[in-house]
Amino acid sequence: MTTQIVVPPMGESVSEATVAKWLKKVGDPVKMDEPLVELETDKVTLEVNATSAGVISEIKVPQGGNVGVGAVLGSIQEGAASVSSPAASATTQAPQQTQKPATANTSKPPAQQSSPQNVTVMPAARKQAEDRGLNPYEIPGSGKGGRVTKEDVMSAGSSPAPARAPAPAQPSGPRTRGDEEERVRMTRLRQRIAERLKEAQNTAAMLTTFNEVDMTNVMALRAQHKDAFEKKYGAKLGFMSFFVKACIQGLKEIPSVNAEIEGEDLVYKNYYNIGVAVGTPQGLVVPVVRDADKLNFADIEKTIGDLGKRARDGKLAMADLTGGTFTITNGGIYGSLMSTPILNPPQSGILGMHSIKERAIVVNGKVEARPMMYLALSYDHRIIDGREAVTFLVRVKECIEDPERLLLGV
User: Fold this and answer.
1) Do 56 and 138 belong together in one domain?
2) C-alpha distance from residue 315 to each of 22, 177, 319, 406 (Å)
3) What's the number of domains the chain is made of?
4) pLDDT of residue 137
5) Hey, is 174 helix, strand or coil?
6) H/E element, 86
7) Does the pLDDT at position 395 exceed 90?
8) Domain match, 288 and 336 both
């Protein structure tokens, strides 16, 4: 009996994907629910799992091909070959191995001696391996089903890397510009990011207002309680939970920052789904912390930590990326001192956090060195007036500089 490998529903507004990588080849045995192929959409990377056990009998869409929901990617031939036990395989292979002389093959590089088809490497792990000059298919996997994770690559990378073969000699003669260029097709995610950013610039009347915040009190509060917080809740106390709470206070006071335009109507959201921008090897994604106003600091930190990890491992679901009402992005983790973030449509506001730097500040008539951070609020001027934007940013500043306000809700 033959079972087709079909593209599953990929979520609202997503109807097409690209075959990023086949994890199996024709003739390979597969088990029920084993990952077969990775599909890349304009939002997330999805795995298509086997719906039956058997052998891959056909691959219809090669890597790089575009497919729609319901398209047939290939087929599985159900049969006994797929259910042979590891013990039986070892029994049949053992005599063959004993008949061959055990000679080391040094003519092939390590990458050729491995069997990539039998190893599943997560996208983040593949990128990490490339950066470290490692072959991810030679690294033992600790993930589900023996998958190689980013952590596996980082652990392997802590040991000395094998020496690389010398680069081939460059041909003599004049070099052309083409020798210095590399043409790589944009991924679906990168194409979608480009489209949405350009859409925001073309559609919204985008403006950015700035302020600066003294981080002294929130840093002292965090330093005082971070160890007890982590011990009790199993999550680190970062600055993001403070800013999420501060933004919610501002959104409640200035509801237009939490609104969007729909046709000729303004839609005011009385719920607070806060998007948190996360950089991944594939590009920027914005997973959403849902009903953030109903979460405490520990819940927010745990949710952000989980979403960030799944984003870097390419494990976000479509539901994790939809329904946001306001976005926070932290360029400070990359060293940015100041920037003008671009709106995440159809949202009308986005807050940009930046690096904390000690600067000379006048406090009660005296010059002191204080840890300061620039804040930037980009907003849609069609919905939000300058007075409202400035008021929102001032409320965020007040909550961060006096963090007890967050606990009291004032």
Assistant:
1) no
2) 17, 39, 12, 32
3) 3
4) 80
5) coil
6) helix 86-99
7) yes
8) yes
